[in-house]
Amino acid sequence: MRIVRPRQVSGARRRASVARSGDASCTCVDSSYNQSHMTRIRVDKVVANANESRYGAVIMAAKRARQLNNYHHQLGEGTFDESPPPLVETRSKNYLTIALEEIASGKIKLADD
After folding, report:
1. How far apart are CA 101 and CA 22, in angstroms?
2. Is the pTM of this model over 0.90?
3. I need a labelling partner for 103 at 20 to 30 A (CA). Which of 27, 43, 55, 75 fits?
């Protein structure tokens, strides 16, 4: 049995093949595109606002993410029932990330039952 290694493609050849295929997302010239836009949420802040409970933080984030999902679906339908809008300014479109940012900033607290 013979093992075949994949052919190595140099950077110039790779860029040329991407340009020929028409995939503009990979050939972006803007220097700001290469900067990291990852959201950094500190876990210790999230847990501190969830009464020092990781389980509470997970439950809070999941419930709030569902509320945000319902809110955005209600925007499309034109009905506004009980789901509040996002409480923080963010670039993220991921509902769970938005929920974690809200918890970390202290906008949402765990209600004592």
Report:
1. 36
2. no
3. 75
> Hey, what are 90's tokens?
């963010």
* Structural tokens at position 33: 């595109």
Closest CA relative to residue 53, chosen from 43, 68, 40: 43
State which amino acid sits at residue 4. Answer: V
CA distance 92 to 102: 12
pLDDT in tens, 61-97: 999 999 999 998 888 777 767 778 899 998 889 999 9
Angle at 20 between CA 14 and CA 24, to 5 degrees: 85
How far does CA 15 lie from the centroid of its chain? Answer: 28
CA–CA dist 32, 69 (Å, integer): 30
CB atoms within 10 A of CB 17: 12
